[in-house]
Known about the structure:
Blueprint: H1 7-10, H2 14-32, H3 36-54, H4 62-68, H5 74-85, H6 89-94
Amino acid sequence: MTRPGSDRIHRAPPSALFLVRTSFIPSFQELFGISPMRYLKVRRLNAVRQRLKASDPENCTITFLASEFGFYSPSHFTRDYKTMFGELPSETLRKKK
């Protein structure tokens, strides 16, 4: 059983995707000052940080928590996290509120 209108996604002409790339991305960058992908990564990193701050160090696995937000490479996640927040995820987790 298909949903009404679900076939429209598959029938989009390739030119429609080109328009997204040529108009949306530059407009987004102009408005927010960063690319859409960078914006999403920043949002995800902030979400992980909030969860780390709210978690009990005894019951939290950083790798599992990071993977819940789409970070599947621990080394890349740690590098990006430290670059953005100036500390390791483990340091955030150990800090008291």
